[in-house]
Design goal:
The protein is of the alpha+beta class. It is about 20% helix and about 35% strand. It is built from two helices and six strands. A six-stranded antiparallel beta sheet has the order 1-2-4-5-6-3.
Length: about 160
């Protein structure tokens, strides 16, 4: 069953990354098997002046981070709440950490102003660990990058940083 808009907003509110390092604008679809989210790379993102002067493109590491924030962090928060049988807003202290990237393949570049759609399909969720097949597409459906990402749900209060 797909999550309603209120539930999607609760999940979005739990994502710990904030500006200028938050790369998720909305959750389009969310259920026990997949997440679809979107982000528009604004012309004034902090990294464009240096990557590359005169011809800015979005760094690959930022593309992977965007896929991780949507496909692992936001999705992990939702799945943790489902496992605990609570609404996401009722969870206290969980933090979903991105922990693995494998088989990442880049097939295109993302320019300032472009909106991307990230699709994540659950491979597994067990003992707080989530692994996802994830892809990033342009709005026309052209794949920009894809691979497998994983993360772990931890209680941020348990760790000293």
């Amino acid at each position: 069953m797909e999550a309603d808009d209120t539930l999607k907003q609760e999940v979005l509110a739990l994502v710990p990354q904030q500006k200028p390092f938050r790369f998720i604008d909305e959750i389009i679809r969310l259920d026990d098997e997949e997440i679809i989210g979107a982000y528009r790379f604004r012309d004034d993102e902090f990294f464009y002046p240096g990557h590359f002067p005169g011809r800015p493109i979005t760094p690959g590491v930022i593309l992977v981070e965007t896929m991780a924030q949507i496909g692992v962090v936001a999705y992990g928060m939702y799945l943790l709440a489902r496992q605990k049988q609570v609404r996401p807003i009722e969870m206290k202290g969980p933090l979903s950490l991105f922990s693995l990237a494998e088989d990442i393949e880049f097939k295109g570049i993302v320019a300032p102003g472009e909106r991307v759609i990230v699709k994540g399909k659950k491979i597994y969720m067990r003992k707080g660990a989530l692994k996802v097949d994830v892809s990033m597409e342009r709005e026309n459906g052209e794949v920009v990058c894809a691979g497998k990402l994983a993360g772990m749900g931890v209680d941020a209060r348990e760790k000293e940083w």
